[in-house]
Amino acid sequence: MNSMYVQGNSFLHQLDPRTKILFVFSIILFVFLFYDPMFQFLVTVSLLPIVFLSGLTTPYLKTVKFMFLLVFLIITVHGLYNPMGDVTKVTWQLTENLSFKHDALIYGAVMSFRILSIGTATLLFVMSTHPSDLANALVKWKVPHAVAFMILSTFQLIPIIGREAKVIMEAQQARCLDVKANMIQRVKHLIPLFAPLFITSFMRVHQMSQVLECRGFSSTGPKTSLREMTIGFRDYAFLTAIALFALAAITLRAVVGGTLLPITDFVLMSALIGIWIVCSIYFFDFLWKSVRKKVV
Amino acid sequence: MKNKLSTLVVAMIPAGIALNWVANSIVEMLKLPLFLNNIGNVLNAIVLGPWWGVATAVLTNLVIGLTTRWTIIPFALVGAVVALLGYWFFKKGFFKSIPKVIAAGAITGVIASALGSAVAVYVFGGFAGAGVDILTAGLVAMGNSIAVSNLIANFPGTFLDKILTFWVVFSILRIFPVRFLPNAKKIQEGLGMNKGKKKDDKAA
């Protein structure tokens, strides 16, 4: 499995992974401080220029798709059916029994933009950070070297074991394992497929632990790495900016409270319809691609 | 000995994570409506010890969260509990016959689906970004509360899934070549495999 890392040389790529981890955490802090859809929306939108400037627009748009399905369901279903708050306050009457309620819609919108902004921040982090750098950063944060190694070696191991699973599948099919049998038979087929897979991966584990031992993995003392990252001027500037924002946000929260501006029906409606529009664009794009696949 | 175990653990946990991941593709190839994505957790919990199973669960969700969809990270809690329960049932001797394994899987399935729904409701307002969400939405539209509909939508899948996870781990550990298991004797005792041999010895 490839990690989602996209090679690049932008500002974000050159930051230290630790700075970026702090950035993701500060975004999580921001969106949980306030209960205001406008604010969450602003956080999400303010992240988009960073996506663009880092040259991650295309991969970002590709991966953000599934989040929009989640967000679409959350805002629609909660707006229609969540019985929280004042149920009589209706924002949009669809039919006699079906209406988008004000309080429930606020909840749906806040949840949706929370998910979108945290998702965007995480994607920015993952797409601009090489897995080795992530492991290095973790080691520098006094995470045990073994844990960092586990995370890193998983990235390599998954495609290997995946390939093995495919080979086993084909070998067993060659020995008359019927993949199209009835349900119970297919459940029973799990054993002939999983047993060789487990055994080969255990063999691999033993080999690997011997190799690790040979290369002095369990030796004590400092370990060096091929890729070195240092915290420079950029990181300090970025961290200062984050700290200033965090300070401003916390003061605002203390002074004004959870909601910044009065939440009008207009804001809620535009959030709902905006999400619907983005979702339908993705949906039509999906339809268009599947139709084209069939034609070509 | 301690060092040897630790490199074994270091090598074993990524394998567990990879098995969790690859199980999905095997199940997909067989076209079964399951996930079996806790198989590595349960295996590691039994073979290495409960806390290594928990570590496998947490790291699995972290790695998948970092590479495909971050919404899976909070569900690490479910994987960790399944790993702990797997170890607990193993310790209590539930991994000795198929009916007992199924019972253990059923109990784990109930707990796991309740926990999964709780996480989904508290963190994501009742959805998890998977295909089942559409069923949840339909159930909500029929007039159920969000927590209940999430539970109903997810229960059958999770329930069967955990039973089959336990069953697969049980069946495979029974036929496993002994030399690859780090603490083979203990595991075979837990699986109730040594009894037969002793009787044979007496008969001989």
UniProtKB/TrEMBL annotation, chain A:
Keyword Transport attached: no
Primary localization: membrane
Record membrane topology: Multi-pass membrane protein
Lineage: Bacteria, Bacillati, Bacillota, Bacilli, Bacillales
Entry keywords, A to Z: Cell membrane, Membrane, Transmembrane, Transmembrane helix
Compartments in which it is found: Membrane
Keyword Transmembrane attributed: yes
Protein's name according to its UniProt entry: Energy-coupling factor transport system permease protein
Pfam (any one): CbiQ
Membrane-spanning segments: 21-52, 64-83, 104-126, 146-162, 236-256, 268-288
UniProtKB/TrEMBL annotation, chain B:
Keywords attached to this entry: Membrane, Transmembrane, Transmembrane helix
Transmembrane domains' residue ranges: 42-64, 71-90, 102-125, 132-153, 159-176
Transmembrane in keyword set: yes
Protein name: Energy-coupling factor transport system substrate-specific component
Lineage: Bacteria, Bacillati, Bacillota, Bacilli, Bacillales
